């Protein structure tokens, strides 16, 4: 009953009737949609309702925030991430997702679907058909129109009573103006008037309360009344509630300083969270300098236009929409979209340059954090600058492949390569990244062909680094197809720098890794151990967790072949630590297989069976049966045979099932923690 839900950063005021209704609806309907205007509180109600439902959901509650998505293309990847699926197969994403959810009993929340209604309608229909134990809760400004959908209209808070809009205003006022007392009759009347004018719409009330930092309640009410009067006199024909929200947002906009308003508009190009550095990189220009950007950010947080978590900022989608309208009015939409894309490309270049550094694991996290904005930048560049699009996806492709975004990276790479077919400095890198993705999806022959094309591109460009990258891809495709001698030949074909001085070439280091794999596959275990230990030392010097974890994988495997089970277990745990650090579910599954084999070789049959079962649970998250180079197959078979011999078939089956029955991401994390903590 794990709940993968956002943290509630403010209190929920009122909504008892809605929450009680949802509790009942969860028992009767499989699809419930909360509808209502923007800012009415659909997300907050859904979050609290999902949290309350968690104890009744054996496999968990999953939250997919769709508000940052600019189109339907990232939808399946976003939902897959939410439910813990890191599919490494070549099948369609929707098939993989439906199969993953088939036996799950839980609640999936799709928040902010209104801009993706058609795509969400199709997806929800598929998953509800495939997963009879699944319930879906949707928030949207309109219903999806799926058969069996139960629609709940979310109304604004009542403007009368103790738990309505006035209670919300009072709660938020205590934060904005701690010394304010509503006991004063004039203040109390002004507060009630504000709530009535704003029709009890929670977001509008919160924006009004934020103004109390600089104004009295009476001043806020007077300014608000004046704005409403001007709208009515101006002939505004919007529905009252839409007008109330638009008025509150527009009024907050007017109360901002001029540079804050400009900043609001420019920040609307960000789809997800962003930091100060990103804000400065994209929004600086004209009257906005570095210092004024910082002051504008602070002012927008104070006015509740921006949410700040202590390190990063974000806009609510309703407020972002208003900013985009102003950006268009200013005539800056295209320019800011280009600046945003250029910034994302700069981030990708920096991440690539830092791959061999001690910041590698931090870059994996950073690339994951800005995933939605990278997709937005890719979509922009595919229209405006296909060469830069090819460069961007080539740079982030390996990061995404390691973290399970294989479908997305493959789709973007194939589109970019088709749109920019001419030879150039970025084509080889894109072909290489596509080859890695297809290899991880099990298409070894296609990966090999892409490796050949990458090699040809490297020769055309006289690019030595790309030649090493092609050697890595070709060597890996040979290894996965059971040809270790061919892999070794490719890996060592280009003389590189000294063995201990390859800190500047990520591709050269990957070729060295292929060489270690090949030596193990050839049975040259002494040579393989020497090369692996030397490579591991180089990784320790630079902080390269990705390569280091795979050298630990090889050292564990070699130790098993050399009857050194204690060393094998130590290296398997070291591999798991590294793979967990960068979020590589595929690597974690491999590491658990080796740890189980080492435990079986140590005579710890029950623990071996438990870990082996847990590895099966991890393999399910990547959509594959057990994978790896061919020599791993006999190791797995011996693991099972040895464990059964120690504890017997019944005990083995019971322990294995305990491990394999873990079905949630948090459960897998706890299981992994437990194994890493034990000697």
Describe the 3D structure.
Helix content is 66%, strand content 5%. By secondary structure, it is mainly α. Strands 1-3-4-5-2-6 form a six-stranded parallel β-sheet, with helices on both faces. A two-stranded antiparallel sheet has the order 7-8. It is globular and about 85 Å long. Mean pLDDT is 86; it is low at 228-241 and 497-501.
Strand content: under 5%
Give the N-to-C terminal Cα separation.
Answer: 29 Å
Rough outline: globular
Overall radius of gyration? 28 Å
In what order do the strands lie side by side in the largest sheet? 1-3-4-5-2-6
Overview features:
single chain; 679 residues; mainly alpha; six-stranded parallel sheet; two-stranded antiparallel sheet; 8 strands; 5% strand; globular
Task: Report a brief summary of the structure.
The protein has 679 residues and is mainly α. The chain has helices spanning 16-28, 42-53, 75-82, 93-101, 117-130, 165-176, 185-197, 202-210, 217-233, 240-255, 258-267, 276-283, 290-302, 317-330, 333-353, 360-369, 371-384, 386-402, 406-419, 427-440, 444-461, 464-480, 484-491, 506-521, 525-542, 545-561, 565-582, 585-601, 605-622, 632-647, 649-660, 665-677; strands at 3-4, 31-35, 61-65, 106-111, 134-140, 150-153, 307-308, 313-314. It has 32 helices and eight strands.
Helix-strand layout with pairing:
Blueprint: E1 3-4, H1 16-28, E2 31-35, H2 42-53, E3 61-65, H3 75-82, H4 93-101, E4 106-111, H5 117-130, E5 134-140, E6 150-153, H6 165-176, H7 185-197, H8 202-210, H9 217-233, H10 240-255, H11 258-267, H12 276-283, H13 290-302, E7 307-308, E8 313-314, H14 317-330, H15 333-353, H16 360-369, H17 371-384, H18 386-402, H19 406-419, H20 427-440, H21 444-461, H22 464-480, H23 484-491, H24 506-521, H25 525-542, H26 545-561, H27 565-582, H28 585-601, H29 605-622, H30 632-647, H31 649-660, H32 665-677
Parallel strand pairs: 1-3, 2-5, 2-6, 3-4, 4-5
Antiparallel strand pairs: 7-8
